[in-house]
């Protein structure tokens, strides 16, 4: 399928002050991701792994190094002003709808804003488009005259989605877009996103710490750790045969509904916290926390290795480990 978005060696760093002197946080450290038309790429990882920073870099909300291509076109060199034209292609939905909805504006006025900036539609044409997108997200046209605080959390998120799709983008970046909602509302909003994907041809970068939700909605999954994608692959391969120890640890943290299966799985526990991003560990950034760390892991950064069943993992177990790819880890767990 057509590639709608691709990054190559994307890096984000920013200055911080620590203990009275200035240093640099390396929040995103050389990320390659590929998003195909009509696909949902799930992005998982602990908080602090750089997921939101990556999203903001893709939206060109913060500066980055490396390449971002939209529809094959390199947009990474574009200044914010020039990128505004590309804004139509890529939009974002946040955890908190108030990030995109001004509480003092009617819903209609909020949805109209991008139309005013990016199109030459008349007021009547804008009103028509607003009714259209409200219908697409399952809301009544007369909601346009109401204010965000008259709505439930789920309805507000629908409005935020309506605003995000009003320019007919190709890509929606959803950063914890359903995380603040209760489970049944979550399901409704996820169903809506899936419906919109098919109906208007969207592709999603779906960022969430909720693995069950990611498993449900994603075609492909990327796992982020300390600013790097340490593993990626088709959703079934990731959840069925994770190749990277960090992914395995993350998956083990999800309660298994079947108590027998749960007993059969020895829990891999995550030791310690995410290391200081101003001073990432040498070699494999996960080595201090990894249950399978070997001597080489502290010394040498693991290369990307293709994993049977699809995708790649960055882990020495799959190259210089004592055992072969795939078998290595499952025999230890
Ligand atoms: Fe663990 Fe080494 Fe693999 Fe890193 S490279 S995940 S430390 S086994
Ligand atoms: Mg975040």
From TrEMBL:
The answer to keyword Protein transport applying to this record is no
Keywords recorded for this protein, A-Z: ATP-binding, Nucleotide-binding, Transport
Q: Which InterPro entries does the UniProt entry name for this protein?
A: AAA+_ATPase (IPR003593), ABC_transp_ATP-bind (IPR050319), ABC_transporter-like_ATP-bd (IPR003439), ABC_transporter-like_CS (IPR017871), Oligopep_ABC_C (IPR013563), P-loop_NTPase (IPR027417)
Q: Which Gene3D superfamilies match?
A: P-loop containing nucleotide triphosphate hydrolases (3.40.50.300)
Q: Which SMART domains match?
A: AAA
Q: Where is the ABC transporter domain?
A: 5-251
- What's a BP term from Gene Ontology annotated to this protein? transmembrane transport
The lineage's top-level taxon is Bacteria
List the Pfam families: ABC_tran, oligo_HPY
Q: Does the keyword ATP-binding apply?
A: yes
> Which molecular function terms from Gene Ontology are attached?
ATP binding; ATP hydrolysis activity
Please state which protein family the record places this protein in. Belongs to the ABC transporter superfamily.
**PANTHER family found in the cross-reference section:** D,D-DIPEPTIDE TRANSPORT ATP-BINDING PROTEIN DDPF-RELATED, TRANSPORT ATP-BINDING PROTEIN
Protein name, per record: ATP-binding cassette domain-containing protein
Q: Which organism is it from?
A: Arthrobacter terricola
Taxonomy, top ranks, is: Bacteria, Bacillati, Actinomycetota, Actinomycetes, Micrococcales
């Amino acid at each position: 399928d057509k590639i709608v978005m691709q990054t190559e060696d994307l890096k984000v760093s920013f200055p911080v002050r620590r203990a009275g002197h200035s240093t640099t946080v390396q929040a995103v450290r050389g990320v390659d991701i590929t998003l195909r038309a009509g696909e949902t790429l799930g992005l998982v990882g602990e908080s602090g792994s750089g997921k939101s920073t990556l999203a903001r870099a893709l939206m060109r909300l913060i500066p980055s190094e490396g390449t971002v291509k939209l529809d094959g076109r390199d947009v990474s060199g574009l200044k914010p002003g020039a990128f505004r034209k590309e804004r139509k292609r890529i939009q974002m939905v946040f955890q908190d709808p108030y990030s995109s909805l001004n509480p003092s504006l009617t819903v209609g006025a909020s949805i109209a804003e991008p139309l005013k900036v990016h199109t030459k539609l008349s007021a009547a044409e804008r009103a028509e488009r607003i009714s259209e997108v409200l219908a697409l997200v399952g809301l009544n046209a007369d909601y346009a005259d109401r204010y965000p605080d008259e709505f439930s959390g789920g309805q507000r998120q629908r409005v935020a989605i309506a605003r995000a799709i009003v320019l007919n983008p190709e890509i929606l970046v959803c950063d914890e877009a359903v995380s603040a909602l209760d489970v049944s509302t979550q399901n409704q909003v996820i169903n809506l996103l899936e419906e919109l994907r098919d109906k208007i041809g969207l592709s999603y970068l779906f960022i969430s710490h909720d693995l069950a939700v990611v498993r449900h909605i994603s075609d492909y999954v990327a796992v982020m750790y300390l600013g790097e994608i340490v593993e990626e692959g088709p959703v079934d391969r990731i959840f069925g045969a994770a190749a990277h120890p960090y992914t395995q640890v993350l998956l083990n943290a999800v309660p298994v509904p079947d108590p027998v299966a749960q007993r059969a799985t020895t829990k891999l526990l995550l030791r310690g916290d995410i290391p200081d991003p101003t001073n990432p560990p040498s070699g494999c950034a996960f080595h201090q926390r990894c249950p399978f760390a070997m001597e080489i892991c502290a010394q040498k950064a693991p290369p990307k290795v293709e994993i049977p069943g699809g995708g790649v993992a960055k882990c020495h177990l799959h190259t210089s480990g004592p055992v072969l790819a795939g078998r290595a880890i499952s025999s230890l767990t």
